[in-house]
Specification:
nine-stranded mixed β-sheet; single chain; two-stranded antiparallel ribbon; about 50% strand
Length: about 110
């Protein structure tokens, strides 16, 4: 499946929740891993462009060491990509990144 790079210039991302493991099975608590066996974490953020209203989006990050991201923090993404999925009559766009970095207080976004 083709990943489409996302241009993040002019966008502000703010964590809505602390980063958390992405679950493969909510009933058992089994954590999702990618094809290489690396655990996948999920971060819910608001994304806002200048003059636009904020939207909510979920971003996945495969990593053995998740960054320390807390609710309310501004974050920067590296390698943000989107990909279209379709299964069982449902479809959507999922987003993943290669890195997430909290923005230090007072630093430019």
């Amino acid at each position: 499946m083709k990943r489409i790079p996302v241009d993040v210039r002019g966008l502000e991302f703010r964590a809505v929740e602390d980063i958390a493991p992405k679950l493969k099975n909510r009933e058992t608590g089994e954590m999702k891993v990618n094809a290489a066996g690396v655990p996948v974490y999920e971060l819910m953020v608001t994304v806002k462009g200048e003059g636009r209203r904020a939207e909510l989006m979920s971003v996945s990050l495969p990593t053995n060491t998740p960054p320390d991201v807390r609710a309310g923090q501004l974050v920067r993404f590296e390698g943000l990509t989107g990909f279209f999925w379709e299964t069982s009559g449902r479809s959507g766009v999922s987003f993943s990144v290669t890195a997430i970095e909290p923005v230090p207080e007072g630093a430019p976004v």
